[in-house]
């Protein structure tokens, strides 16, 4: 019989079984090559679907260490695609500016690097934290703290970019304004999600803040619902924003071949 954590896993699974195909539709509509923000929502959907399935398996196999490790890792890496999706949305807004002072694409590509590094740290941390060796567990906690701090710093920089974007609001088309407004509305929910991650990783002895054994109610209201809201906002923006051809993107003196999706 499923407990409350299993029930939460089913809720997450059902949401992303709907959101995932919808994100794929939006990503196809805007193109996979440049509008990486929506592609990353597809990635997040896959992560959450797999994580939910593993959580349900854990319900029946609570002593299976490998499945517990996999479920823990998938629970801890969801922030990365969310933050990168936000960055992708902001990049599109600046690429589509007609006049004003748009930020160069290279800046957004460089900002993606720390988040990708934090993603790798989070994966390694999740593996080490479930090790039988005390040294590995200690390293896992340190790596997890470093990862979440990187997420926080990159998030704050992106918030500053969103604020800067409003200074050139007159140069942003109506369709791109919808994306900027969606990003702005998502900020408080992403902040709460980040605070939950910080509490999980810095209060390691807590019985409330923990991805696998903590309070289900707290996790639902500080992490799961926030993700639902952010994903929904970005999907709505993707539907309302017009499709932009590559030829319509404002030229920039700085070009980079680096892709935010790896």
Summarize the structure.
The protein contains eight helices and no strands. By secondary structure, it is an all-alpha fold. The radius of gyration is 19 Å and the shape is globular.
Notable traits:
single chain, 262 residues, mainly alpha, disordered C terminus
Structural notes for this entry:
It is a single chain. By secondary structure, this protein is an all-alpha fold. 73% of the residues lie in helices and 0% in strands. It is built from eight helices and no strands. It has helices at 4-30, 36-60, 65-76, 79-95, 105-129, 134-165, 174-202, 216-240. The N and C termini lie far apart (39 Å). Mean pLDDT is 87; it is low at 252-262.
Please mark out the parts with pLDDT under 50 across 5 or more consecutive residues, or reply none.
252-262
Multimeric status of the protein:
single chain
Q: Give the class from helix and strand content and strand pairing.
A: mainly alpha
Strand content: under 5%
* Percent helix range: over 70%
Q: How many E-type strands?
A: 0
SSE run: HHHHHHHH
